[in-house]
Amino acid sequence: MTIACAHARSRPPRVLFPQSSSFRGQERATREKAIGWKCSQWEGLLLECAVPPCRDPFRPGSPRRPRGGSAMSSIGTGYDLSASTFSPDGRVFQVEYAMKAVENSSTAIGIRCKDGVVFGVEKLVLSKLYEEGSNKRLFNVDRHVGMAVAGLLADARSLADIAREEASNFRSNFGYNIPLKHLADRVAMYVHAYTLYSAVRPFGCSFMLGSYSVNDGAQLYMIDPSGVSYGYWGCAIGKARQAAKTEIEKLQMKEMTCRDVVKEVAKIIYIVHDEVKDKAFELELSWVGELTKGRHEIVPKDVREEAEKYAKESLKEEDESDDDNM
């Protein structure tokens, strides 16, 4: 009892005021009004952030929101907030947006021939102040593997580092060069992982991998932002990919050598380049094959200049023949 009394004396006395029923009613009304305001604020946030087909948690018994609908699915409203969300018609808008970034980029071409692989890139020069050769879109992944990219250059550099790490780890573990198919599958799985989680975004680039070895011969693969990987004889990515593919289909790639293909790649790049919409560009060329003893290298300057001269003369002859026909 003594301890209880001492504890009671240590606390300040409570002063109780009589409360009328009207005062308690006003207090209850004020509390309900505040709670209602908070609920309305949370309701607005949920309507903005939540996946559309769900019940309102603050209104039991409320009707479901309509599923799908042409207006909502066509523009991606509510379904393009995350790469892990499917639209009602089975589309992943974040991946489609990443592919759109590739379509707005400069064109890149890869052609596989009987003795190697040749890459060509239309690198747009956005400013006259740029140093020649800067912002390259052709990379060395390994001694025998080259890479050509289209899309966001920063994303492409990140994936080039991932590919280099995969190739280096494979050589450290097994003692020989990584097969291109295995490398393409490994990098494609990494790209695909960035389409599965809401905390990350897909890579805004597509890229081609090419290699040559005595056992496997020439190989060419392309990986897109969804993580899909395919082997090709000829491939084009970027804004003029359709026109470039049409030109590639005219070639007899299985009967051509790398020196022949270099000229054709330069010609295709000059054909698909839009002089009206696009600014000046630099032509980047690289190859890997018997000619380079299985190493991926930048095409020598004299060979590149010869290929550009051939491309310009071919275009001039085609223009003259068109004028004669008219």
UniProtKB/TrEMBL annotation:
- Residue ranges annotated for the Proteasome alpha-type subunits domain, each copy included: 79-101
Q: Which GO terms describe its molecular function?
A: ubiquitin protein ligase binding
Keywords from the named record: Acetylation, Cytoplasm, Nucleus, Phosphoprotein, Proteasome
Chief subcellular location: cytoplasm
User: Which InterPro entries does its entry note?
Assistant: Ntn_hydrolases_N (IPR029055), Proteasome_alpha (IPR050115), Proteasome_alpha-type (IPR023332), Proteasome_asu_N (IPR000426), Proteasome_sua/b (IPR001353)
Where does this polypeptide localize? Cytoplasm; Nucleus
User: Which branch of life, at top level?
Assistant: Eukaryota
- Pfam family name, one: Proteasome_A_N
Kindly list the biological process annotations in GO that this record carries. proteasome-mediated ubiquitin-dependent protein catabolic process
> Might you report a single GO cellular component term?
nucleus
Q: How does it assemble?
A: The 26S proteasome consists of a 20S proteasome core and two 19S regulatory subunits. The 20S proteasome core is a barrel-shaped complex made of 28 subunits that are arranged in four stacked rings. The two outer rings are each formed by seven alpha subunits, and the two inner rings are formed by seven beta subunits. The proteolytic activity is exerted by three beta-subunits PSMB5, PSMB6 and PSMB7. Interacts with AURKB. Interacts with CDKN1A. Interacts with MDM2 and RB1. Interacts with the C-terminus of TBXA2R isoform 2. Interacts with DNAJB2.
Protein family according to the UniProt entry: Belongs to the peptidase T1A family.
Which PANTHER family does the annotation name?
PROTEASOME SUBUNIT ALPHA/BETA (PTHR11599)
Can you name this protein? Answer: Proteasome subunit alpha type-3
Its source organism is Oryctolagus cuniculus (Rabbit)
